Amino acid sequence: MNQKTITQSTTAAECEVLAPAGQPESVLAAVRNGADSIYLGMHALNARRSAKNFSYDQLEEAVKFCRLNSVRVYVTLNTIFFDSEREELIDCIQAGCELGVDAFIVQDLGVAQLVKQMAPDIPLHGSTQMSIHTPSGAQLLKDWGFKRVVLAREMSLREIAEVADRVDIELEAFVHGALCMCVSGQCYLSGMLGGRSANRGMCAQPCRLPFSAGRKGACDLSLKDLSAVERVDELRAAGVCSLKIEGRMKRPEYVAAAVRACRDAVDGRSPDLETLRAVFSRSGFTDSYLDGRPGPAMFGVREKQDVVAASPKLLKQLENSYQKPVGRVSVSLTFHMRDGLPCELCLSDGQNTVRVAGREPEPALRVALDEQKLMQSLTKFGGTVFSVQDCQITLDEGLSLPVSELNRMRREAVEQLTELRGQVQPKRFCPSVEDSLDFSMQTFCGLRGEFDRFEQIPLDQIDLFDWIAVDLDELVSNIKKLDRLKEKLIILPPRGMFGREGEVKQKFQQLFESGLKDLLVLNLAQLQLGREIGFRLHGGFSLNLSNTESIRYLEQYGLLDCVLSPELTLAQIRSLGGAIPKGILVYGHLPLMLTRNCPVRNAKSCGECAGKSHLTDRKGLRFEVRCRGGCSELYNPAPLWMADRMREVENISFGVLKFTYESQYQVRQVIEKFQQKVKLDEHITRGLYYRGVE
C-alpha cells in the first residue's frame, strides 16, 4: 500500500514583551494577549506594595499557568529593606527557588547579595530604582553578576545605544505606562511629606497634586504617561531586548490593552492606540525622553475626559480578550495509522513529548480516511494553549477509524502535555549562613560638610570639618584657591549624569591628577569610574544604604565610609552592623527629587529662571528648585536640624552638614549654631529619624 506524509509549518516572531501583574487576573490578561514575560510581587518587599500582589499559593498558580503558556516569571524584590525584614526577605527568596521563577528584580545591594548567595541559579535583574543611566553603571552590574539592567526612563535612544555598544548585558526599557517626575530610586518626596516611601513601594504620588511654578493650581510635577509603542523598532535597534509595560497598580483591562498593543507592534502589526488612550492616559502620551527633548509638552494630568474614555463596552471587550485560552504554544504532531497496528499520536513542544496509543484501524467499508480528514480531526486545538506548527501524518490507504477515537487520542495527548508543561521546576536554595562579623557600636567623631558652590565655603571655619565635599564643577573652576585644603577635599559629583559620563570622567581625571584622591559616590556608576581612576571611595546618601547587608557588600568592594539613607530612623541606625564608619545627614534642605525635566519650564524659560526658582504647593509651602548639569533638584522647604538632638544619635561616626542654596553668611550661622547645639525656634524638620517610613 502507498504511504504519504503531509507537513504544515508556521513561524512566530521573537521579542520580549514584559507585562505587569499586580493581581492574579492580570496574569491572565497579560498571557492571553501575548506577553512573553510577566513581573509580579509577593505581599512585601516590592515596589508596588499597594497592589494586591501574590500569596505563595497564588504565585505557585501563576508560575504553573505561565509555564504552561511558555511565559517567563520575574519576581520583584525591588525595594530597600531594613534589617528587621531579613527573615521575610529570605522567605521570599526561598519561595522563588521552590517555584523556579526566572529572575529576581532587585534595587537594594543587600538583597542582591542575599539572592546571589541563596539563589545562585536565578538571574538578577537590576531594577530601574538602581538609577542606572550610563555605561559605567551597567558595567558595574555586569561585573557584579547581574544578567540584565532596567534602564532609567529618562534616557534617550542615543544614550541607550551607547550603553548597548559598550556593555554586554541585557537592556530592558519601559515602553508604556506612568512616568514618575523623579529619577526612580532618587525620590524622597512621598516619604518626607507623608511617611510613605517610594523606595519602599508605598509611594502616595504627591507629585500628582498641585505644585505650581507660577500658574495657580498647576500640577508641575505631573508628567503624561509614556508610550513608545510605535517606536519599538527604534528601541530594539538601540539595543533593548525587553520592552517593559508599567502598571502593576492598574486594572487587568489596562494590562490587556497595553500588552496587545505592544505585541502587535513587535509583530509588525499596527497597534490600537485609540484603545490604549481610552483605557488610561494623562492628557495623552509622551515619548520625548527618547529624543532627548524634555520640556513643557511632557506634562499632563488625569482629566475628566481621560477618566470617562474607557466605556463599559470597551472594558467588557478587553475583559473578554483573556477569558479563554489562546494557542500560543507551538507543537509538533505526528500520527501513524498502519494496517494491522494500533494507531499512535505523538505531541511534542520541543522539550516534552507524549504518546497516546489508539485502536487498530479497520478496513474502510465505504470511504477511507485520507490526510485531509485526519488533519481536520487531529489539529482541532481550539480552547487549549496549543497550536500545531508541524503536522506529519503517515497512513496506509483504505483504512478507517472512528472520529470519536481520533478526538479521544487528541484530548488525552493535550491533557498529558498540559500536565507536563505546568509542573513547577524548583531551583537550588542555599540557606544563608550568618557571617562571624561582630556588631560594634560606633562613636561619633566629628562633622563633615557638603557645598554646592565655592562661594558658600567659609575658609576660616574649615578646620571644624574632618573633610568637605565640593561640587565637581566648582572644584574644577576653583581648585587653585583650595590647594591648601586638598587633604580635606572630596569631590561631590552630580547624581544625574545623563549623556555626560565621558565629561564627568574627564573632570574626575583632571582633579585626580591635581592631587585630589577622594570621591563621594552618589550613583553606582561612580563606583566604577572611581575605581578605574584610583580614587578613595565614600558612599553618599543617594545610594539608599539602609541595612547591614548592603553596607558590608560595599565595604567588601572598597568603600571607606558611607552616609546612610535618610529614610532610616535613629532606632534602626542604632542596630546597623558593618565595620566601615557610618554617617547621617544632620543639617540641610533635603533633596526630594532628581528630575531630568525641569518643572519650572512650565511657567518660565531657562533664561528667566537662571537655574534658580521654586514651586509652591497647595498649602503655600515653597520648594526650591535648582538646575545644573542637565538635571534639576527639588528641595524640602524646612531644613533638617539635629544639633540639639545629637546626644540621641548612636552608632554613628560622623554627621554631614549639607549646604545647597544658602549664602556664605547663612552657612556661617548654621556652623556656629550647630557647634553650640542650639535648639532652633524657626521652622525645621527632624526628617524621618523619629517617624520613619512605611
From TrEMBL:
EC number: 3.4.-.-
Alphabetic keyword roster: Hydrolase
InterPro entries per the UniProt record, alphabetical: Pept_U32_collagenase, Peptidase_U32, RNA/ubiquinone_mod_enzymes
MF-aspect GO terms: hydrolase activity
Peptidase U32 collagenase domain segment(s): 311-421
PANTHER family for the chain: 23S RRNA 5-HYDROXYCYTIDINE C2501 SYNTHASE, PEPTIDASE U32 FAMILY
Designated name of the protein: Peptidase, U32 family
